[in-house]
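Hello, quick one for you while I still have it in my head. Could you read through the record and tell me how the tokens relate to the sequence? No rush at all, and the record is pasted right below.
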Amino acid sequence: MTESPPRAWAEIDRSALHDNLQFARRHSGKEIMAVIKGGAYGHGLVEIAKELDSQNLPFLGVANAGEARRLFKEGIRTRPYILGATLPSEREEIAACGWTPCLCSFEEMEHFNQLGNDSPIKAHLALDTGMGRGGFQPRQLGEALEKLGHCPGIILTGVGSHLPVADEDTEFTRKQFELFDSMVESIPGRDETFHVHLSNSAGLLDYHSRTTNLVRPGLLLYGISPLSAHQKNLKPVMTFKSRVSVVNHLPKGHGVSYGRTILERDTKAAVLGLGYGDGYPRSLSGKGVHVLLNGSLCPLLGRVTMDQIIVDVTELENCQPGDEAELFGPNLLVSDLAVKAGTIPWEILTQITPRVTRLYR
């Protein structure tokens, strides 16, 4: 028996991923920590990690020990970097496996020092320069460095911070860069092997640091720019697709979908086999959204349902079951879709559900 094709799938363009990585390298002139948390922003954690494992990266940025463990079990050689504070129950595994934590509190520092009693743990120090999500504030840096000097179980190999508004507030972000650079310059004993990092995608695109030698692109790697002026330099990695299941001819005045959107003309309506159960946001209902079908933009009709959406194909000469439609991708940017959904592209990408097949090209 032949296995039937999926109703909804995401095509992942490996070459686009590599092109975006090379752009990040050229544009920043620094080493790259590829951020692959959240299932590589919905693109597939293990598959993207395997694709990047040969790219001579110092780190792969993950959110927790669970994501690091998946890479470890798959034989990924690039070192996982745990972005953010760790739970006490995670730390023994992190220490035993040689993953890199960022120390966000004195309590973490003390615990990792104990765990590194026999074999010192390589760790970074997290600085809070305005995010308010963990790390040592400027007034605490001196004490943190002093305590680390009495922690033989920890080898400090880097320092980092995070940008909360690099894509929104230029003035604050420039001040944040200056604060971070000043803090880093007060750390003694740094050499070329000591990793200093602050910039996310927006940061590496539009700002300059005098101390950093590492950047942490996430969204940019997947071909979407948080700053629209740079989108022309990137290639979307994911194309989200579905196919037509049935085409109906509906008269003027007929209702469409839940809530009964009333048709204002005789309409040829195509049903596509995906909905919010696949990660296509329900909030796109009634927002003037289109899909690309047979080379034409076709408007969404009525509300998005769990498993199906309906689009107006009246203007298409030919449309039949099995025809493919692009929901977002190179021709319909997910960032534009996010604006209409009242959200951000990070959320849409990471909420593409497991029942959507990922196809790697």
